[in-house]
Amino acid sequence: MHDRAPQPVDRHLPTDEARDLISLVRDIAQREIAPKAAEEEDAGRFPREIFALLSASGLLGLPYDAEHGGGDQPYEVYLQVLEELAAARLTVGLGVSVHTLASYALAAHGTKEQRIEHLPAMLGGGLLGAYCLSEPSSGSDAASLRTKAVRDGDDWVITGTKAWITHGGVADFYTVMARTGQEGPRGITAFLVPGDAEGLSAAAPEKKMGLKGSPTAQVHFDGVRVPDARRIGDPGQGFPIALSALDSGRLGIAACATGVAQAALDEAARYATERRQFGRPIADFQGLRFMLADMATQIEAGRALYLAAARLRDAGRPFARQAAMAKLHCTDTAMRVTIDAVQILGGYGYTADFPAERYLREAKVLQIVEGTNQIQRMVIARHLVGAEER
Fold first, then answer.
1. Per residue in 235-260, pLDDT tens?
2. Which one from 84, 135, 362, 370 is the annotated catalytic residue?
3. What is the rounded CA–CA span in Å between residue 320 and residue 155?
4. Pairing relationship of beta strands 155-166 and 173-179 according to DSSP bridges
């Protein structure tokens, strides 16, 4: 087995604290995550103990206020942490991104009392979150969701099924979008649902081509009672909350994709310098050197794109278009780079003895989650020329 941690990326970080943070993350990634990644992914094992370690290390709430247990880090820094984690194991990087996404609604739109009551445990208390928007019949068309929440006294009763839920069945809390009113986007409300709520259950995890250590499952709500105190925002405000969460979540996916691509490039470069053919390392052949150069350039461009979007977010400026661009470019880059990495390793790249084939299988899902890349193109075009006529 030749799996190893990626070579350190030369990062331009805004503070000494951020540099220390990246050093901590690299140490955890190299000691605790990367050595077991291939074996545990092959076995489909979810590394819950790693998330407990990350929580204890203050890494599950980085972009949120320290007042409520967060790390007070700008998105520019948080995303680079995600990239480092994803390079070591995508299950972990993506898991942190999803947890951050699941925490967003309460952190950004909850009342003061809700934030005080729930956020410390969510951000630093060892809890793990899941985000419930998609359903079996509503993926890209999320506004057509059918899961219902009906008011009953001081409670809401939630009934329906969510699909493609990362951490489904293992999460401690679920941020759930449910229909409380009319059809369409104006009839949707957000709720914070405990993972042990009566009537909540998860189906068996989906059998996937990659990312096998990260459970993805349908989550069933069979008359789940949720107090009105766990409603986030006003009734009918859920869809805008969901979309604003996804803008930030797409940057997380872009960073994770960059991490996977960087890991694939590092593996390909390592192999190319060690593998000898015709009496010299294959890295001496110009055709292969050009492949590596193109891979590195695409990765660096993607990193610059997601960081530019993050800096807009940190400055309080609109960033939805740039987030869509970053998600589109970085995930497409990860797909191209991992394909080329397998090609550089040749027959060995097609075997599970080397990590390149795992990176390729994992890269594919990043073009799909949190809005397919076709949806990203629609978002970008809408910002350029307006909505489509119907």
1. 999 999 999 999 999 999 999 999 99
2. 370
3. 34
4. unpaired
Spatial contact of 117 and 173, defined as CB atoms under 8 Å apart: no
What are the backbone angles phi and psi of residue 254, rounded to the nearest 5°? -60, -45
Phi and psi of 12, rounded to 5°?
A: -105, 100
Here the tokens at position 216 are 């993805």
Report the C-alpha gap between 302 and 307 in whole angstroms: 9
- φ, ψ dihedrals at 334, nearest 5°: -60, -40
| 166 vs 212: CA distance, rounded Å | 11
Beta bridge mates, 179: 148, 188
Distance CA(174)–CA(205), nearest Å, equals 16
pTM of the model: 0.95
- The number of beta carbons lying within 10 Å of the beta carbon of residue 197 is 16
**Contact present, 265 and 232 (Cβ < 8 Å):** no
Distances (CA, A) of 334 to 103, 214, 285, 341: 27, 19, 24, 10
Cα distance between residue 367 and residue 160, in whole Å: 27
Residue pair 216/168 in contact (Cβ under 8 Å)? The answer is yes
Residue 280: what are its φ and ψ, rounded to 5°? -155, 160
Instruction: Please write the tens of the pLDDT for every residue from 300-329.
Output: 999 999 999 999 999 999 999 999 999 999
C-alpha closest to that of 166 among 202, 191, 190: 202
Please give the Cα distance from 56 to 330 (Å, whole number).
Answer: 30
> Known catalytic residue: 83?
no
- Among 102, 92, 97, 86, which residue's Cα sits nearest to residue 46? 92
